[in-house]
Amino acid sequence: MEVFKARYIGFCFGVRRAVQLCVTERAKTEGDMCTLGPLIHNSQVVERLKEQGIRPEDKVEQITGGTVVLRTHGVTKWEEELLRVKGVRIVDATCPLVKRVRDRAVLLRQEGYRVVIVGDKEHPEVKSVLSYLDNDAIVLRRYQRIRGGRIGLVAQTTEEMARFLNIAKMFIEDGSEVRVFNTVCRITRLRQKEAKTLSRKVDIVLVVGGKTSSNTEKLFNAAKKANPCCYKIETSADLDLEWFRDKKSVGILGGTSTPPESIEEVATLVKSL
Amino acid sequence: MEVFKARYIGFCFGVRRAVQLCVTERAKTEGDMCTLGPLIHNSQVVERLKEQGIRPEDKVEQITGGTVVLRTHGVTKWEEELLRVKGVRIVDATCPLVKRVRDRAVLLRQEGYRVVIVGDKEHPEVKSVLSYLDNDAIVLRRYQRIRGGRIGLVAQTTEEMARFLNIAKMFIEDGSEVRVFNTVCRITRLRQKEAKTLSRKVDIVLVVGGKTSSNTEKLFNAAKKANPCCYKIETSADLDLEWFRDKKSVGILGGTSTPPESIEEVATLVKSL
Questions:
Q1: CA–CA gap between residue A155 and residue A36 (Å, rounded)
Q2: Residue B270 — pLDDT band, cuts 50, 70, 90?
Q3: Which of A39, B26, B191, B236 has CA atoms 20 to 30 A from the CA of A231?
């Protein structure tokens, strides 16, 4: 089997930085250490951190002392305030690009815009941004008409670019003023573009990444549009040999929270077919 | 021949206002009266104004006294200043929607945006807007990448909506911040939409309007995309009976500067075929 691995694959800058911060802090910190929510959306990585004594905690109420790492997607303003009041030591691993979404959205609201976030309202990144706006924003992934006023538009960092652009276009068509911060992160844009081109030139596409990873899901959607013979897997254990019958070439894509080992494992196994 | 006349046809608000202003002013004003440039882009109307003693002057240098009417598309800041210095009496018939483009563009420049105007740089409206920006803006009708900085986008009032939206989309895709004022005027939007739907349901389309009229040209483009059997005419004198051979239905569209009489003349003649 001929294997084409994406050029942009594996950990992005924000994930690498967060994992590095955890490892460094663990080495120099005594006592209890946890993350608030999983550090990144990849269960293999989260398991490995657990082995190193960094457990994920779901609720801020369960954290009473020690060190807490704020995950890449960010936490809500209220959670962070509560942790400070409790006197817990905070290590902030929030991706700077997520903070940029937050800053831009806050600026838009301050300047009198009706803030619209293109993203998933259940995703921790969006929940974090919303909390900094006191929940005074509209979250959507399908255009809906908003009457009157000036629209301020931002995107979840891992949003599909095509979707974001189409929604922006519709707000411009319907409205009079739209101020847009394109906060889809650069690596997401590059990977979505590459997902399309690579998927077109192979017989089968494998997208490697965490089940709850938003950017992996969107990469999968972009790839599937370009090549319907497309599968999302978490590790090589999810591979099904039936998929490869009569196929000659395979493309491998990976989410920004997918560890390089998971990708290498898949690539090695597929090459041997 | 079955005739379908567009619902949105004939003079728009800005043109009606300008013609009305001219007539009213002529009635109450003694002495010399002219317009700086043709009042609107329709030679029939300009001829009729001439008969009433309102001649069009091309250059501000030729105007030395009396009353001057500023045309619907606006004049440059320098021309207006020069007229004031000369002590000429000014009647401002500039369309308020053209002034809105100007105001929005000036605001964007003041707030540090790189101003981009989607429109025709030879059109008097765009020249007028540019002059208020001291020519510090980019005029384009095809996307071109502009490196760095915040982009402030406006449109000529008669620009094709689809073109404007696509250019906006590309600026958003390539950049980080884009602030858009959708200054395509409402009636232009409605007519372009109607041009498409009406053109699809008839055998032949006639677009009635001045040769130099920007909005008539764009209406023609929109209609031609929906129905290739499409002709642009100024008056019924331009009709060619050959066009109607084997045709059963005709759609009639008109620019915002097309007088109702021109449209009625065409409709009556075509109905009798």
A1: 23
A2: very high
A3: A39
> What does the pLDDT look like over A62-99, one tens digit per residue?
999 999 999 999 999 999 999 999 999 999 999 999 99
Q: Is the pLDDT of residue B148 over 80?
A: no
User: Is the CB of A180 inside 8 Å of chain B's CB atoms?
Assistant: yes
**Cβ–Cβ gap A181/B179 under 8 Å:** no
Torsion angle, CA of B130/B135/B139/B144, rounded to 10 degrees?
A: -150
d(CA A244, CA A262): 19
The answer to whether the CB of B208 falls within 8 A of the CB of B236 is no
In 3D, which of B39, B45, B78 has the Cα closest to residue B60? B78
Name the strand (E) or helix (H) holding B244.
none
Name the pairing type of β-strands B177-181 and A177-181.
antiparallel
Contact A230, A220 (CB under 8 A): yes
**Which residue in A176, A177, A182 is closest to B172 by CB distance?**
A182
3-state DSSP assignment of residue B175: coil
Q: Which of A169, A176, A181 sits opposite B168 (nearest CB)?
A: A169
pLDDT at A147: 83
Q: Tokens 């490995």: give the residue.
A: A48
Mean pLDDT, chain A, integer = 94
Which runs of consecutive H residues, i.e. helices, occur in B87-160? 96-110, 124-132
Compute the CA torsion angle A228, A232, A237, A241 (nearest 10 deg): 0
Task: Provide the CA B140 distance to its chain's centre, in angstroms.
Answer: 17
pLDDT above 90: percentage of residues in chain B: 87
Q: Are B17 and B93 in contact (CB under 8 A)?
A: yes
Mean pLDDT of B39-68: 92
The average pLDDT across A258-269 equals 93
CB distance from A17 to chain B under 8 Å?
no
Q: Would you state the pLDDT for residue A124?
A: 94
Residue B139's pLDDT is what? Answer: 98
Across the range A238-253, mean pLDDT stands at 95
- What is the 8-class DSSP label of residue A236? G
| Neighbour count for residue B77 (Cβ, 10 Å) | 16
Rounded to a whole number of angstroms, the distance from the CA of B26 to the nearest CA of chain A is 36
What per-residue confidence (pLDDT) applies to A185? 93
Global confidence as pTM: 0.89
Buried-exposed string B103-140: b where 16+ CB fall within 10 A, e elsewhere: bbbeebbeeebbbbbbbbeebbbbbbbbbbbeeebebe
Contact assessment for residue B117 and residue B181, using Cβ atoms and an 8 Å cutoff:
no
Question: What is the C-alpha to C-alpha distance for residues A129 and A186, in angstroms, rounded to an integer?
Answer: 19
Judging contacts by C-beta atoms under 8 Å, the chain B residues touching residue A168 are: 168-169, 172
pLDDT at A148 over 80: no
Q: Is there a contact between B180 and A165 if contact means CB atoms under 8 Å apart? A: no
Quote the pLDDT of residue A243. Answer: 95
The set of residues, in sequence order, having a beta carbon less than 8 Å from that of A113 and lying 6+ positions away, is A149, A150, A151, A152, A179
Measured CA to CA, the distance from residue B92 to residue B72 in angstroms comes to: 8
